[in-house]
Amino acid sequence: MRLPVPRGPITAVLFERLTRPPHGFDLPPVRAGEAALEDEDLQLALFACYELHYQGFDEVDDGWEWEPSLLAARQALERRFEDGLARTVPRPPEVPPAHVRRALTELVAAEEGPSLAAFLERRADPEQFREFVAHRSVYHLKEADPHTWAIPRLRGRAKAALVEIQADEYGGGRLERMHSELFRATMRALDLDDSYGSYVDRVPAITLAIGNAMSMFGLHRRHRAALLGHLAAFEMTSSLPNLRYGRGLRRLGGDATACRFYDEHVQADAVHEQIAAHDMCGGFAAAHPELIGDILYGAACALTLDGFFAGHVLECWTRGGTSLREAGLAVGDR
């Protein structure tokens, strides 16, 4: 994966610096006037900083991963992102440990955002479905990796539950069954570029924000409870949408190979949602009742960001336009 095209003054400086050997530097001040979740420059900068902990970039020295000045710059970006999330996502009321599963279920049930899954099932044309898959590729080509950061930070029942979920995500040790590989097959069937990070330049800030929230929660031990809540919401809202995605793709002529990613999630996530809500979050809440609020907040963040993403995509399609950015937009363009 190569560095993306900058989208503002922060990424212009950051990417220029990252092409040099690791060294100390300062970023321009983080803008305060624009909503953090919609700030293209901020979200792309965070994505690039986090990506150094995943697969990295072809032209970036791996020594940058722990360079102190880059971590300080990332911290400033994260503060802006955390503030944006806090302003946008109300913290759900705390509940006793025994009621965490019910509270998660109620959060999911209360979500009333636009149904992107229903649109894809019944109305999307082939190009719109391809756009949707391009958006999702930013996460699905590294599916499960952000949540895996939590494994060494857990103990007991919650850890065992998370490992059980993640083992399925990684195909039970079989390459061809890894969910990221199944998604790659879907991309190939739709004649999309299945190389890692291939559509980062095309996706808007809200798509990047979805992945950035996972990475931020995953890379900070203080956010481990939010990460578990995020994963629980992710699993609890997966089976029905994926059933609809599969139906929509079949309506458009997708074969069994193209649809296997979605079919797999219909079955696997029906089990995962029970494990995630009851054993993982319930077990963690019993051991750490003081962090129950963080569990529910992480779930609320997942649901809110996904709702914003669906709203963006459907609004663009309703206007007859694309939900993706134009390829190769330079600094300051939108």
The SSE string, one letter per element, is HHHHHHHHHHHHHH
* CATH classification class of the largest domain: Mainly Alpha
3D shape: globular
From the 3D structure, determine the CATH topology of the largest domain.
Heme Oxygenase, Chain A
Largest sheet: none
Tally the helices: what do you get? 14
Counting structural domains, the number is 2
Percent in helix: 55-70%
Tell me the Rg in angstroms. Answer: 19 Å
Structural class assignment = mainly alpha
Between the first and last Cα atoms, what is the distance in angstroms? 22 Å
Name the CATH superfamily assignment of the largest domain: Heme oxygenase-like
Q: Which CATH architecture of the largest domain is right?
A: Up-down Bundle
Low-pLDDT parts are 329-334
Would you tell me the overall average pLDDT? 95
Beta content comes to: under 5%
Count the strands? 0
Organism: Streptosporangium carneum
Pfam family, one: Haem_oxygenas_2
Protein name: Iron-containing redox enzyme family protein
InterPro entries: Haem_Oase-like_multi-hlx
